[in-house]
Amino acid sequence: MNTTHPVTATTSAANLAREREPLPISRILRAYLKEAKFETIGALRTTGFAIPFIVVPLAIYLLFGVVINGNAGSNSEYGPGIADYLFSGFSVIAVVMPGIFSGVILATERDGNLLKLKRSLPQPAGATIVAKVLMSMGVAAIAVTLVVIAALIAAKITISFAQVAIIWAVLIVGTIPFCAMGLLIGTLSSGSAAPAYGNLVFLPMMWLSGLFIPLPDSLERWVVIWPAFHLNQLALGLAGVKQFSFIPPAIAGAVLVGVTVLIGGLAIRRLARVG
Amino acid sequence: MNTPDRLHALDAARGFALLLGIVLHATMSFFMFVPAQDVSQSTTLAVTFYVIHLFRMSLFYLIAGFFAHLVFHRHGLRTFVRDRAKRILVPMTAGWVILAPPTIAAVAWGLSRSFPDGPPEGTAAVASQGFPLIHLWFLYYLCLFYVLALGLRAGFVTFIDRSGALRTRIDAVVGAGLVSYLSPFILAAPTFTILYLDLAWPVWFGIPTPDAGFMPKLPALVAFGTAFALGWVLHRQAALPGLLERQWLANLVFAVGLTVVCLAIVGPVPNLTTATVIEGGAMMRLVYTACYTLAIWYWIFGLIGAALRFCADENALRRYLADASYWLYLAHTPIVFGLQVLLMSVPLHWTVKFPLIVAITLAVLLVSYHYLVRPTFAGEILNGRKYPRRRPLVDSRASGRQDGSRRSLATHGPGALPGADCLRVDAALAPVALLTDVTKRYGKTTALDGVSLAVQPGELLALLGPNGAGKTTAIGLWLGTIEPDDGLASVMGGSPLDVNSRLGVGVMLQEVNLAPELHAREHIELTASYYRNPLTVEETIALTGIESFASKRYGKLSTGQKRQVQFATAVCGRPHLLFLDEPTVGLDVEARKTMWQNIRRLLNEGCSIVLTTHYLEEVEALADRVAVIAKGRLIAEGSVAEMRSLVTRKQISCTCAIEIDDIKGWSDVIEVTREDDFVHITAFNAEGVVRRLLAADQTLSHLEVRQASLADVFTELTREVA
Hints:
The complex is a heterodimer of chains A (275) and B (722).
Chain A: H1 13-19, H2 25-45, H3 47-68, H4 72-75, H5 82-111, H6 114-120, H7 127-154, H8 161-173, H9 175-188, H10 194-208, H11 217-220, H12 227-238, H13 249-274
Helix pairs in contact in A: 2-7, 3-5, 3-7, 5-7, 5-8, 5-9, 5-10, 5-12, 7-8, 7-9, 8-12, 9-13, 12-13
Chain B: H1 4-27, H2 43-114, H3 137-160, H4 165-179, H5 183-197, H6 218-234, H7 240-246, H8 248-266, H9 281-310, H10 316-343, H11 350-373, H12 377-383, H13 402-409, E1 433-442, E2 445-455, E3 460-464, H14 471-479, E4 486-491, E5 505-508, H15 520-528, H16 537-544, H17 559-571, E6 577-581, H18 589-604, E7 608-612, H19 616-622, E8 625-630, E9 633-639, H20 640-646, E10 650-655, H21 660-664, E11 669-675, E12 678-683, H22 686-696, E13 701-707, H23 710-721
Parallel strand pairs in B: 3-7, 3-8, 5-6, 6-7
Antiparallel strand pairs in B: 1-2, 1-4, 8-9, 10-12, 10-13, 11-12
Helix pairs in contact in B: 1-2, 1-9, 1-10, 1-11, 2-3, 2-6, 2-9, 2-10, 5-6, 5-9, 7-9, 8-9, 10-11, 15-16, 15-17, 16-17
C-alpha cells in the first residue's frame, strides 16, 4: 500500500491545458502494440477461438488435400499441379476463418460494454480495430504456417519454395478484408448471434469459391462474387502459378481492396456511432 | 511577418490559389480536347485558363514555403515531419488511390466520346507519359521541396554556417534584393533560363505541368522551387510584406500588362499541333519567355499584396472557405471532368455550361466537406483539426472561468436546497468537469433537461437519483460516449470527444465485462499504456490491494474481485478526475473498506471524483458535495450535511389494527400507506412515532424501522417538483 508517487497534482487552468497536451507518437504507437499484444494473448487463450482456427485448417488440409487427394495429380485433368491448387485453397481457408470470426470477439466485447469503456478511456483512436486486425493476422499466420509445413512435408506440390513463401505472405496480409467482414458482423450482431452470422458468410464462401472442390458450371461463373476466390487468385497470380491464374492478380487485388475499404468503412462508421 | 493578420491573409491567398484550380480545370473542355471537346468553344475561357495557369501554382508554392518555415521553426523537426506526413503525405496517397481511377476514367471516357476513331494527329505529345500523378502532383512536389529544404538547411547549418552569422548576412542581402525593383527580374531569371533553353517547351502552357512520372521535371523543380524557397526566406523578412501591401495595385498592373504582351505574341488559344513554335523567331521567343516569367512574379506579388491589404482581418466565411479549399481541390477532378464529358454534346452555350459545371462541383464538394470531412477524421487530416458538427464543445465558459460556472450552477430546479450555491470554489482553480445548460434527448424522452453542473478540483461529487434519472447520461456526456443535443460538456478544460482531454480521466463503469482471458495485471498494464504518467502495474496492485488475485484470469474472479480490478484499471493512470459508477456493488466489507481508503487517499492527493451510488452511507463517508438528479433535472445540490436533513425521515413498517387516517394526524408523520396487513409510515421522529404506535396497539407486530433510502427521498423530491 505504500507508494511515494502522488497520484495527482494540483489542478489549475494552466495545469489542465498541460494535461491535454497530446502524448508523444512513440507512446501512442506503444499503446497500439499493447492493445494488439493483449488482443492476441486473449484470443490464443480463448480455446473456442484459437484452437479451431489453428487446428481445423491443418486437419482438413491433411484429410482432403493430402490423404484423400494426395494422388489426384495422376488422374486429374489438371495434372500434378492440382496439389498446388489444393494447397493454396486450404491455405486461404486458414486465413479466412480468423478474419471472419474476429467479429465474434468484437460482438462479445460490445455486449460487455467494453467498447464503451474504451471510448471513455484515453485509448488511441481505432486501437480496438487495429488490434483486432493484427490479432487476426497473427492467428492466421500461425494457421497458414502449419498448412505450409504440412504441404512441404507431406503433399506433392510442384511449385518452388519461393512461390510457397509468396503465397504464404500474400495470404497473411489477405486476412485484412475478411477481418473487415468479421468486424462488420461483430458491429451488427450480439455476441451470441455473431458465430451464426459468421458461419452464414463463411460456409457458403468456403464451398462456393471453388477453392478445393470442382464446381458445376452454373456455380462456377459465380465464384467471382466471393472475396476468398479473389484472395486465392491474388496469391496464385503473384506467385506466378500460371496454370491456376484465371483472372489478373491486379483485378483480384483491387476487389480485395474494395471489399476492405467498403466493408471496413461501414464497420468503422457503425462502431464510431454505436460503440 | 508572422502576425496573425498576415497569416490570415496568406491562408486566404492559399485557398484562393486552390479554388482557382477548380475554375482552371472547368475551362478545359471549352478550348481543348482534354478531358473532352465541348461543342461550344470559347476564347474567353482559353484566356482565363492562360492567366490562372500562369501564376497559380507559383503562388501556392510560395505560401507553402512560408508556412513550412513557420511550422518548422515554431515546432521543430519532429512535429514538422509528423504534421506534413499527416496533412500532405496521407492525403496524397489516399487521394491518389481514390481519385486516380475516376479521374483517369473520366478523361478516357471524354477522349473516346470526342474522338470515336482515335485521337487526332500530333496530339500524342500531350498524352501523359509515365505514372499518372493526376492533379496530386502538387503534393508530390511539395514533399520534394520539404525534403530539399530540410536537407539543404541541415547541410548549411551543420557544415557552412554553424554560428548563424552567414544566415544573418544572407537575410540582409536577400532583404535588400527583394525590396528593390529588381526582385522580379532576379526571381524570374532561373525559370527564364530553363524555359528559354528548352526548345521542346510548349509555350502557351507555361511551366509544364509535371503530372506524369515520379522523376522530377527540371522546369517545374526550378520554377516552383524558386517560389517555395522565396516563401521559406520570406518568413524571415520583416519589411517585405509591408512593401507588397503598399504596391499591390502597381504589381497587378504590371502583371496584367505583361500578360497582355504574352497573349499578343502567342495568341489567345493554344495551337496544339505547333505547341513549341512562336512566330517571329528567336528574338520573339526571348521576349515572350522574359515577359511570361516576369508576369509570374508580378502576379504573385500583386495578389499577396492584395490579400494583405484586404483579407488580413479574421473573417468566418473566408476562414471556412480557406479550410475547405484543400478538400475541394483534392476531390474536384472526377466531378469537373465527369460533368464536362456529360455536357460536351449538349447544345448549350458555354456561358451556361461553364458556370453550371463550376456551381455543381462547388455545391457537391461543399456539402460533402461540411458533412463528411469537416467533422470527421478526414477533416482532422486535411485541416489539422476536427470541427464538431453542432457547435464548439468548449467555449470560454468551459475553459475554466469561475463566473461562468457559478452562474450556471445557480440555475437549479425549484426544489433546490437552501444554501445550494455555497460551493467550495477556490478562485485559482478551474473546474475539472463541467456541464453547462446541457440537454440530451432520446427520441421523445428527455434524459437531461438544461442541467448545469461543475466538479471542482479535489472534491468528491456524489451524483444521486433514482434509476433512469439521468445520472448515467450525465456521466456519458463527460466521458464523451454521448454528445449533448444542446449545451456544453467539458472535462479537464477540453471537449470530452478529444482523446487528449481524457488523458487525465479514470473511469469505472457499471456492468462492464473486461476480456475474461486476460489476467488482472494484464488489464492494468494495457489500460496504463493509454496514460501519460501511469503507476506501474505493481504499484497499482499494491495500492488497490488485489495482490491475491492479480495473476488470475479475469473471467474466473468473483463479482467483487472483478469490481476491484476495474477500480485498479480506473486509477492506474494517475487520473486527475475519476468517474466511479456504483463502484462498491458486490464488494464484501473488507474490499469496500479498502476501496473507501483508496478513494480518500486519491482525494487527499488532489484527485476529483464523481461518484454515483445507491449507498447513502458511502455518500456520507466520502462526499464533499451531493447533486440530486431526477427526471433529467438537477433538483437539489449541496453539502452532505444539507442532504442529511432530507434523509432524517425514516420508514416504519408493521402490522397493526390502527386506522391509517388516525396515524396521518400524528405529529412528525409525513405519509402513511397500507398494503394488505402492513402499514408503511414515513416520519421524521421515528422513535416518537414507534412509541405511540406501541402504546396504541398492543397486538402490533413485524415492526421494522429503516432509514429512507436515497431513492425513496429522491422519488419524493421529484414528485414535489412535478
